[in-house]
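input
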Amino acid sequence: MVTMKKLAQLKIDKLPVIATREPSGLFVVESPVLDIATQGKDLEEAKSRFVELVWIFFEEITEMGTIDEVLTSLGWSKVKNKWQPPVVVESSFQEVNVPARTQYAQA
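output
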Protein backbone atom coordinates (compact mmCIF):
# COMPACT_ATOMS: atom_id res chain seq x y z
CA MET A 1 0.00 0.00 0.00
CA VAL A 2 1.20 3.50 -0.82
CA THR A 3 2.12 5.63 2.19
CA MET A 4 -0.26 8.57 2.29
CA LYS A 5 1.52 11.85 2.88
CA LYS A 6 0.40 14.15 5.65
CA LEU A 7 -1.68 16.80 3.91
CA ALA A 8 -4.62 18.90 4.94
CA GLN A 9 -7.66 16.73 4.36
CA LEU A 10 -10.81 17.50 2.44
CA LYS A 11 -13.86 15.50 3.52
CA ILE A 12 -16.13 14.49 0.66
CA ASP A 13 -19.64 13.65 1.75
CA LYS A 14 -21.58 11.21 -0.39
CA LEU A 15 -19.04 10.32 -3.07
CA PRO A 16 -20.95 8.16 -5.59
CA VAL A 17 -19.21 4.80 -5.95
CA ILE A 18 -20.19 1.75 -8.00
CA ALA A 19 -18.88 -1.78 -7.39
CA THR A 20 -19.29 -4.51 -10.01
CA ARG A 21 -17.97 -8.01 -10.60
CA GLU A 22 -16.56 -8.82 -14.03
CA PRO A 23 -17.05 -12.21 -15.72
CA SER A 24 -13.38 -12.94 -14.90
CA GLY A 25 -14.28 -12.71 -11.20
CA LEU A 26 -12.41 -9.45 -10.56
CA PHE A 27 -14.23 -6.73 -8.66
CA VAL A 28 -14.21 -3.19 -10.04
CA VAL A 29 -14.89 -0.09 -7.94
CA GLU A 30 -15.37 3.22 -9.71
CA SER A 31 -16.68 6.71 -9.23
CA PRO A 32 -18.29 8.37 -12.23
CA VAL A 33 -17.88 11.81 -10.63
CA LEU A 34 -14.09 11.42 -10.51
CA ASP A 35 -13.78 9.32 -13.67
CA ILE A 36 -11.52 6.80 -11.90
CA ALA A 37 -11.70 3.06 -11.28
CA THR A 38 -9.64 0.23 -9.85
CA GLN A 39 -10.02 -3.50 -9.32
CA GLY A 40 -9.21 -6.28 -6.87
CA LYS A 41 -9.50 -10.02 -6.48
CA ASP A 42 -12.31 -9.51 -3.96
CA LEU A 43 -14.60 -6.63 -3.05
CA GLU A 44 -12.65 -5.60 0.04
CA GLU A 45 -9.38 -5.39 -1.90
CA ALA A 46 -11.06 -3.36 -4.66
CA LYS A 47 -12.59 -0.97 -2.11
CA SER A 48 -9.27 -0.56 -0.31
CA ARG A 49 -7.50 0.16 -3.59
CA PHE A 50 -10.22 2.63 -4.49
CA VAL A 51 -9.69 4.63 -1.28
CA GLU A 52 -5.96 4.70 -2.05
CA LEU A 53 -6.66 5.79 -5.65
CA VAL A 54 -8.93 8.64 -4.52
CA TRP A 55 -6.16 9.82 -2.18
CA ILE A 56 -3.59 9.71 -4.99
CA PHE A 57 -5.98 11.48 -7.38
CA PHE A 58 -6.52 14.38 -4.96
CA GLU A 59 -2.86 14.45 -3.95
CA GLU A 60 -1.85 14.83 -7.60
CA ILE A 61 -4.34 17.55 -8.53
CA THR A 62 -3.53 19.42 -5.32
CA GLU A 63 0.24 19.28 -5.91
CA MET A 64 -0.25 20.33 -9.55
CA GLY A 65 -2.45 23.25 -8.49
CA THR A 66 -5.27 22.07 -10.75
CA ILE A 67 -7.90 21.05 -8.21
CA ASP A 68 -10.34 23.83 -9.19
CA GLU A 69 -9.93 23.17 -12.92
CA VAL A 70 -10.19 19.37 -12.65
CA LEU A 71 -13.16 19.22 -10.28
CA THR A 72 -15.05 21.89 -12.23
CA SER A 73 -14.49 19.95 -15.46
CA LEU A 74 -15.96 16.87 -13.73
CA GLY A 75 -19.12 18.75 -12.79
CA TRP A 76 -18.26 19.52 -9.16
CA SER A 77 -19.28 22.81 -7.59
CA LYS A 78 -17.97 24.83 -4.66
CA VAL A 79 -20.62 25.62 -2.05
CA LYS A 80 -19.57 27.74 0.92
CA ASN A 81 -15.91 27.03 0.08
CA LYS A 82 -16.54 23.25 0.12
CA TRP A 83 -16.42 21.03 -2.97
CA GLN A 84 -19.61 19.11 -3.74
CA PRO A 85 -19.76 16.27 -6.29
CA PRO A 86 -22.53 16.12 -8.87
CA VAL A 87 -25.71 14.56 -7.49
CA VAL A 88 -26.68 11.13 -8.77
CA VAL A 89 -30.32 11.43 -9.77
CA GLU A 90 -30.84 7.81 -10.74
CA SER A 91 -29.04 4.51 -10.61
CA SER A 92 -30.75 1.70 -12.49
CA PHE A 93 -30.38 -1.15 -14.92
CA GLN A 94 -31.48 -0.39 -18.44
CA GLU A 95 -32.15 -2.74 -21.35
CA VAL A 96 -30.69 -1.41 -24.60
CA ASN A 97 -30.57 -2.92 -28.07
CA VAL A 98 -27.33 -2.19 -29.92
CA PRO A 99 -26.14 -3.10 -33.42
CA ALA A 100 -24.38 -6.48 -33.58
CA ARG A 101 -23.17 -8.94 -36.17
CA THR A 102 -25.53 -11.85 -36.70
CA GLN A 103 -23.36 -14.33 -34.75
CA TYR A 104 -23.68 -12.15 -31.60
CA ALA A 105 -27.36 -11.27 -31.90
CA GLN A 106 -29.85 -13.03 -29.65
CA ALA A 107 -32.99 -14.46 -31.17
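quick obs: The beta strands are 18-21, 27-31, 36-40, 77-79, 82-84.
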